[in-house]
Amino acid sequence: MTGHIHSTETFGTVDGPGTRYVVFFQGCPMRCKYCHNPDTWDTNSGTEKTVDELLEEYDSCKEFYKNGGMTATGGEPMLQIDFLTELFKKAKEKGIHTCLDTSGIVFNRSNDYILKKTDELMKYTDLVMLDIKEIDNDAHKDLTGHTNTNILDFARYLSEKQIPVWIRHVIVGGYTQNAGEQKRLGAFLAELHNIKALDCLPYHTMGKVKYEKLGMDYPLGDLPALSEKDAIAARENIISAWRAKKQAMENKS
């Protein structure tokens, strides 16, 4: 079995705990307006690689990954779920910590086939970095081209499975830089029981050059980048609502 791989990074430090070997999967159904990797959208491009080839590359630098492991990102890795599962299964056989960076967009609890495949993948997944783009469904569709129904249900599924999760949320001016929606997100996260971290990332414009090289219009035009200060303020709003909802839940019980 081969997978379509966009690229790999041998010394990743922002894609999970420790220093990691990062595999960027090709293909993504989302069309996020702030996406900085439009070159990963096409599922059928990239380089075909086998699981063993990827693990051999991991092994060439494994001394550096003692406190890290392997992360599958993209694109959307779960589009190639059979290949991803084989990769993680063989990684676990070698004692490698596995992390999945996903939007959860392909999850569908009502589809028995997809649910079975997801259950199998989770057997070999140590950590999920879940990108929640937008808590409001209509706004999510405007921002990404898709609703967030299955994404939020994937978050609930991971909570039920007790798979450790890091939440990632990009703060975008005019979209997610909204205190009301940030509080809605915090209240939602309070209902989950497996959240280990929350990363709020400021919107940046570094991807614009890729759109230019690909001859594509950049969806957000000249929307200004945000600062780390903006991201910190958003995280504080989310955490505040998270704690308030937790306290209200405890009081009811």
Structure keywords:
alpha/beta, about 250 residues, 8 strands
Strand content: 15-25%
Order of strands across the main sheet? 3-1-2-4-5-6-7-8
Number of strands: 8
Secondary-structure class: alpha/beta
Biggest sheet: strands, sense, closure?
8 strands, mixed
* Number of alpha- plus pi-helical segments: 8
Apparent shape: globular
What gyration radius follows from the Cα positions, in whole Å? Answer: 18 Å
N- to C-terminal separation? Answer: 50 Å
How much helix, percentage-wise, in residues?
A: 25-40%
**Contiguous uncertain segments of 5+ residues:** none
Mean residue pLDDT = 95
Following the backbone from N to C, one meets helices and strands in this order, namely EEEHEHEHEHHEHEHH
In short:
The chain has eight helices and eight strands. It has 253 residues and is an alpha/beta fold.
